[in-house]
Amino acid sequence: MRKDGDARAMTSYQFAVLTTLVENAGRVRSREQLMDQVKAMELEAFGRSIDVHLSRIGQAIEEDPRQSRRITTERDACYVFAKAQQ
Prior knowledge:
The chain is of the alpha+beta class. The chain has helices spanning 12-23, 31-37, 49-61, and strands spanning 2-3, 6-7, 71-74, 78-81. The mean pLDDT is 81.
């Protein structure tokens, strides 16, 4: 994947999760929903591992991963990809 012309490393699983979020931009997705929607890929053993993947995705796509504007965490560890990019 490229961001601002620079190559960004991402596993195929992480790319599938990001694609799922982008395709559902503006809609809140739980860990379970994300894993179900990426079911063509081998599922992770632990639901919390999706948090690690999302953290790494954030490092690849965000200007400042600590101040995420694209992927936000909602109450009870659900995630949403921002519909409008700032």
